[in-house]
Each structure stands twice: as structure tokens, then as C-alpha cells.
Amino acid sequence: MSNKIWDRRAIRILIANVLVKSGKNVFQIFLNVFIWKQTQDIQVVAMFNLIYLISHMVFFTIFAPIVKKGYRNLLHVFSLIGFAGVYLWIMYLWESAINHLIIIPFIIWFFNSIYWINFHNTQFDLTTQANRWNFEWIRKALRTVASIITPALVGFIITYNYLWQWYSIAFAFGAMFFIAWAFIGLVDLESKSSTKFDIVWVFKKCFAHGEVSKVLYTYALTSFSFSNSIIEVLIPIILFTYVSVELDLGLLVSFFSIVSIIASYIFGKFVHYKHYSKSILYLGFWYSASLLWFVLFDSIEYLVVFSSLITALALLFSIPQKVMSDNVLHKIDGYQNMRSEYMVIREWFQAIGWIGSFIFLYFVDSIERGAIQLVFSVMIIAVIICSIQLSKVDISKD
Predict the structure, then answer these.
(1) pLDDT score recorded for residue 3
(2) What pLDDT, on the 0 to 100 scale, is given for residue 389?
(3) Is 370 helix (H, G, I), strand (E, B) or coil?
(4) pTM of the model
(5) DSSP conformation class of 100
(6) DSSP states of 7-63 as a string?
(7) Residue 166: φ, ψ to 5°
(8) Quick one: DSSP state of residue 334?
(9) What average pLDDT values come out for the chain (398 residues) when binned by 10 residues?
(10) pLDDT on residue 187
């Protein structure tokens, strides 16, 4: 079976994902920095993200049965137009947005969760076991290209107060990406399942299968230490305390993305899917080492070097894990009728790590060196356990 991506619908959602990364860069990097600048309180940042992630988990679960029934394009457009509307609302609020730190993340994740349960199901339907790893590498590479351009551009807009009101125009810029994304990502796929949504039954099926349960457990660990966790919030804030200028921060994040795309290309070219189990151990080791080095050195030069390594290695680790988590589902009889439930269960395990990481940050309540060393030490332990667990997963095709 070919690993080429021939389906044009899959290519369309790949292109659309570049735009989602561009739009979300504004939120993930600069909104957290904006909150930090306004409050100088890491607990406020942690609480903002906790509301954001808990809302995502709840709405992701609520909308999964609707996605299973179909309505893919309707939900796609609704979620992204809604996302753009939230960004325009933040633009309108400008500095007073700081007074709405409960409702903003709640609404953002309402629309975000609708998009992602929809996307995960569509991506699964448009790919196969043979080409899924290729799809994921291309998707992450394209998203990384967006991460090269957007942070520097938004940093420039904010720093030089381009057009008006610094952060406001940055969110208008993000909204523009979401509106474009809403229509580019439309595909002719109204997949419907004849079976009812039964998450309890699928949960039992998943945990009756050793390989599936192993992968799900690892998501609770990696989401504590990788994407959407405190690492994506702490690194920009820590670097900002050194550079103090949004443009400089944006350029640094863009540099991290350049390193990531080079590493991604090399890894994708020379490491085949059948070697993922072994490679995950090496990636976990170097990621843990980079986290350790980040907290041991105090100069901006070292922080930049290790931040770039952390960003690149997190990307490289996430791709094998995502592909493995999709492909092990094929090992369960009747998997075609349980993919929506499986996506929700996987998201629950991710949410455990995400929420746990921000609860931990809330009680640590500091970005001083000693506190950060404690946080990163727990992350290192989680990465090591996860790497060992994933390396034992049988990824052969049944």
C-alpha cells in the first residue's frame, strides 16, 4: 500500500491546518505574554489556561456524538467563524480584555473543541495506516512554516504599534487566518455512522487491548510535558523576562521553528514508521536532557539554544506518538464505528496531563529559578516514563 497522499481532500485540510497554526500562534504566545505583562502573576496565567483546557475537554466530549452523525462542513465553518469572532472581540476589548479572563478562554475552547473533534475524525477517514505517518509529517512541517512567519510578524506589529493599538491589530490578524481557514478546509465528506455513540463500550474495548491502553496512558504523561502544557506558556514568558520586547520574542520563536523544520525534515527523510518505537526512546532522552540544561544555565544565549532544542524535539516526539495512537485503533475489530469515541477518550487522557500541569504551576506560583527547576524535574520524569512505555508498543500492522 502506497504512503503517498493522493486524496485532494486530505491536501486541503493540510493547507487549512497551516492557517490554524498561524491563527493560534497569536493566542498561544502573545495572549499569555499579554496576561503576564498586565498582572505579573503566574497564577493568573495558570488559571486562564485551566479554564481554557477544562472547557475544551467538556465541549470536545459534548460535540463528539454530533460529529459521529455527520454535519462535518457545517461544524467546521461554525467553529472557525466563531473563533474569528472571539479574536475580533478581544481586539475590540484591547487592554480591558484582562477583565474578562474567565469568559474568553471558555468561549475560545467552545469553538476550538468543535474544530478539533471534527478535524481528528476527518483526518482519520482520509488517511490510511500506510500514509498516515506521511500525512502527519507534512502537517507538522507546514504548521512549522507558519510558526516561522507569524510570531515575528505579530511581534513586529505589537512592538511598533503598527496601524493602531498594538495587541489589538495582532488579534485582527489572527481572525483573518481563521476566516480563510473556514472555507479552505471545506471537503466533500459527510461521513455518518449507523451505530450510536457509546463511549463506555469503546472505553472497555480500548483497555481490553494492551497496545491501545499503553498509547492512551502515554498521552497523560506527554501532555504534561509537551504541547498545550505549561512548557508552551513558560518558555515564552521566561524569554520575555530577558528580552522585554515582543518583536525579539517573536523572532526567537520564529528561529525555534526554523530549527524544528530542519530537524523534522531530517527525521522524516531518514526514519521510517517501522523504526518509531526505537526512535521514541532517543527523542525522549534528548528532550529530557534539553529540559535539564534549560534550568541549569542562566544566560539568554543558553536559554535560546535549549529552547530551540525543546521545541524541535517536542515536534519530533509528537508525530510518532500521534501516528501510533491512530494506527493502534486498527487492531480492534470494528474500529470504523468507534473512532469518534476513541478520539474523545484520547483527549481525556491528554486533558489529564494538560490540566495537571497548570494545577501544578498554579501552586508553584513562581517563575523563579528554583520553582522552574521543580516543575521541569517533574516533566523530565514524565517524559522518561512515557518514552519507555511507547517504545514497547507493537506498531506492526495486523
Answers:
(1) 56
(2) 85
(3) helix
(4) 0.80
(5) G
(6) -HHHHHHHHHHHHHHHHHHIIIIIIHHHHHHHH--HHHHHHHHHHHHHHHHHHHHHH
(7) 20, -90
(8) T
(9) 64 72 65 82 88 86 84 80 84 77 82 83 79 76 72 71 59 74 65 74 84 85 79 84 81 81 73 73 88 81 83 81 82 79 89 88 82 87 88 69
(10) 65
pLDDT of residue 203: 87
Q: CATH homologous superfamily for 8-185+199-391?
A: MFS general substrate transporter like domains (1.20.1250.20)
**Can you read off the three cell numbers belonging to residue 396?**
506492526
224 exposure class (CB count in 10 Å sphere: 0-12, 13-18, 19+): buried
For the chain, what are the domain ranges? 8-185+199-391
- What is the pLDDT, as a whole number, of residue 205? 86
**Residues 20, 287: Cα–Cα separation, whole Å:** 26
236, amino acid identity: P
Distance CA 256, CA 249 (A): 11
Segments in the chain forming alpha helices (H):
8-25, 32-39, 42-69, 72-93, 103-126, 132-159, 167-184, 199-207, 210-225, 230-243, 246-270, 276-296, 300-327, 339-364, 369-391
pLDDT for position 7: 67
- Rounded-to-integer distance, Cα 100 and Cα 48, Å: 10
294 vs 235: CA distance, rounded Å: 10
Which residue's C-alpha cell is 525534515?
A: 265
Torsion sign, CA atoms 358, 359, 362, 364: negative
The whole-angstrom separation of Cα 288 and Cα 381 is 8
Contact 379, 231 (CB under 8 A): yes
Q: Report the half-sphere exposure of 212 (CA within 13 A, side-chain side).
A: 22
Please report the pLDDT score of residue 168 as a whole number: 67
Nearest CA to 134 out of 259, 269, 279 is that of 269
Is 86 in contact with 23 (CB distance < 8 Å)? Answer: no
- Residue 36 is which amino acid? W
At residue 94, the 3 state secondary structure works out as helix
Q: For residue 271, which phi and psi values (nearest 5 degrees)?
A: -115, 115
Grid cell, residue 270, equals 531518514
